[in-house]
Amino acid sequence: MKLFRKIRKKLLDSGKIKSYLIYAFGEIFFIVVGVLIAWKINNLNELRKNRIVELKIYQSLNEELNSNLDLLDFAIASYTKNSKIVESTIQLIMEDELAELSDTEKTELINVDYKATQLHNGAMNSVNTTNKFEFIESVLLKDLIAAYPNELDNFENQESKIENIIVNKLQPAIEKHISLIDILSEREFANNDFKSFSMASNYRELIESREYQNSLVDRLLQTEIQLSNAKSLRDKTQMIAFRLTKELEN
Description:
There is one protein chain. This protein has helices spanning 2-14, 17-93, 103-109, 122-129, 139-177, 203-208, 210-249. It is mostly helical. It has one domain.
């Protein structure tokens, strides 16, 4: 800087105004260029740091979504199986002349097998509720990620509907007519006299029960809705996971 001041002073003292102005503009030009270069370097460093954060976010989301894909595959298989079982049960009770029930048919009538699908949402919620969302450059990914929590909520709400039907409608209807001890295996007891202490089960009354019939139909309808939800959610999950994989490969 001292050198620049000496040059400017020498030009002024010599009276060469034109040379002084040319020099002054040149000095300003080099200063501006230096500032722009420094700004560009700093900007590139920020972009590099942001890209590192962005890739970490993508990696975390990708792992979570791929885990959800496995869970949804299992859920789709489970909903399909449960729908067929309930359909078969409804067909059984619709028969005009129902013969003596086999042990398999009795088991089918009182089947309440159900396990809720617990999808992962920690990484997704973290992105949507913090400043991590700002690091995502892809507009398409932003839209997909922003909409995904609502899809999870819809799925979870439908799960709750099915669980409510089974716990608060179907099970009470079954327990009203069937002794729960009938469900247990005799080998679980020290002797074979346990049935003498329980009330006899009445499968005919169970089959003719309106509460039981309505609960079965309701469960079938809600399970079919959830099966459709699971397939749709799987497609959307796969789409986001595919886009994330592409970003990670770039």
